[in-house]
Write a structure and sequence with these properties.
The complex is a heterodimer of chains A (322) and B (141). Chain A is mainly alpha-helical and 322 residues long. In chain A, α1 crosses α3. By secondary structure, chain B is mostly helical. Chain B has a domain of 79 residues: Orthogonal Bundle (Arc Repressor Mutant, subunit A), CATH 1.10.10. Helix content of chain B is 58%, strand content 10%. In chain B, a hairpin with a 2-residue loop joins β1 and β2. The N and C termini of chain B lie far apart (74 Å). Classes of the chains: A mainly alpha (322), B mainly alpha (141). At the A-B interface, α3, β3, α5, α6 and α7 of A face α2, α5, β3 and α6 of B.
């Protein structure tokens, strides 16, 4: 039993160390890419920031499972009289906290969504919108804004004042935008990013990556809804401004706001027809090489038994030392 | 938790490597120890270094001491169990905080910046939209 407990603590400590190292790597990579990412297409940005958010956790899990765990199993004799010292216990507890906090955060977000939705739908009536592919609810009372809800079965919830203020073409453009969100399952992706454990779930960089991802998703949905049509782009821009003007201040929702400049950037981008920039190949290659490097390093490390052994010895030395 | 114990646990979290090592050995022994008792576990360290470290831990309130003959015998005032219990309590508090502070609904909004939109900015954007509409009309679209 002690053997397994110590092994589990070693794996958890390995997770923390690798997660912190990969988080540092991502911080450096994001700084290197910098504002250059703004010139990428929304889909490219969306993929990059999602991968950057998930990578440290993925690399850390792989490190614990492919390097630390096997190293312990190969090199630690079963009958060894090891115990969990305070330092190892502390690091293992930190790992558990980092592993659990993300999923708990996601559960909290899901419950907050259900609460809001239940309140809205109490005063709502269903509106038929042909060929949309999901139900639309018009909220008669209270200020609701314009929201796509649901992780697997999307539904659109719109405040009556907002819906009435939009012209039929603006409404069609706005519905097209939400259809694009539904098609790319953005709410589910948002949940997965929020649930992703590790240091990024508590670090400011993690929130920044999530905000960048949200911004890129909005731009990608704009681009898909407009499909290169300048008239549709103007109607969508007009719908954005009307919704921004009418939608109520809601602190619970504003927490996920993109930043003050978002409507501005999106409307200007729609009007300029600047919807399909492409990242230069070199920049894209560097960014993706940076994303994949830690995973490749962990995979290569796991195949080298001598290195796995050396790492195990180092870990054991540190555990004894502290 | 008493304020005194909380202060001791807080001090424990800020120990240097040698202090942490010494207190861990005292814990492992489970019985009061003298400087000489600790020396086999701290090879390479001078008697006076171990003595100073124990004295520092005593002054920080983490060790008890009583005189026996010419030497002091040291024992811990905070048990590993207390440390683990406190850490676990803080951890649970922090984790529960995650569910409370995460009132960020999983919704995709047409415009996420509710309430933040600046009136003058919106007017400027509306002017730009009108201008672009006229431009497209002139082009026959």
């Amino acid at each position: 039993m002690t053997y397994l407990v110590v092994g589990a603590c070693f794996c958890l400590a390995g997770f923390v160390v690798a997660d912190l190292a990969a988080t540092g790597w991502i911080a450096a990579l994001v700084a290197l890419v910098g504002d250059g990412a703004r010139r990428w297409s929304p889909s490219q940005r969306r993929r990059f920031f999602a991968a950057a958010r998930v990578l440290p956790c993925a690399a850390a899990v792989l490190f614990a499972a492919l390097v630390v765990g096997p190293g312990y199993a190969w090199l630690e004799p079963r009958g060894a009289r090891e115990s969990v010292g305070p330092m190892l216990a502390l690091v293992a507890l930190s790992a558990i906290a980092l592993l659990v906090r993300g999923p708990l955060f996601a559960v909290g977000a899901w419950r907050a969504t259900r609460r809001l939705e239940t309140g809205w739908l109490r005063e709502a009536e269903r509106v038929e919108v042909p060929r949309l592919g999901f139900p639309v609810w018009r909220v008669r009372e209270g200020a609701a804004g314009f929201w796509l809800s649901g992780l697997l079965r999307p539904r659109l919830i719109v405040g009556a004042d907002v819906l009435d203020a939009l012209t039929p073409v603006e409404r069609a453009a706005a519905f097209g935008h939400e259809q694009a969100h539904a098609a790319s399952r953005d709410n589910l992706a948002r949940l997965c990013l929020a649930a992703c454990p590790g240091a990024l779930s508590v670090a400011r960089l993690g929130r920044r990556l999530e905000r960048e991802w949200v911004g890129a998703s909005e731009a990608a949905a704009d681009r898909r809804a407009v499909a290169g049509d300048p008239v549709a782009a103007v109607e969508l821009a007009s719908a954005l401004v009307k919704v921004a003007r009418l939608a109520p201040p809601a602190p619970a929702l504003a927490a996920s706001a993109l930043g003050d400049g978002d409507v501005d950037i999106r409307v200007r981008s729609l009007l300029a027809g600047d919807l399909s920039p492409r990242a230069p190949l070199a920049a894209k290659t560097v960014a993706w090489a940076g994303i994949l490097a830690p995973l490749a390093a962990v995979a290569a490390l796991s195949l080298d038994r001598a290195l796995v052994g050396a790492l195990h010895d180092l870990a054991e030395h540190l555990v004894r030392r502290f | 938790m008493s304020g005194d114990r909380a202060a001791r646990l807080s001090t424990l979290a800020r120990l240097g490597p040698l202090e942490a090592r010494v207190i861990e050995i005292v814990w492992k022994r489970g019985a009061p120890v003298s400087v000489r008792d600790l020396q086999p576990d701290l090879r390479g360290l001078a008697y006076t270094t171990v003595m100073t470290t124990l004295d520092r831990l005593y002054k920080k309130g983490l060790l008890h001491r009583r005189k026996e003959g010419r030497a002091f015998l040291y024992s811990t005032r905070v048990t590993p169990h207390e440390v683990q219990q406190t850490l676990a309590q803080r951890l649970v508090g922090w984790l529960l905080g995650a569910t409370r502070e995460s009132a960020r609904p999983l919704l995709s909004g047409l415009v996420d910046t509710l309430g933040e939109a600046d009136g003058a900015l919106l007017e400027e954007l509306e002017r730009m939209i009108r201008h672009r509409r006229e431009q497209l009309r002139r082009e026959g679209r």
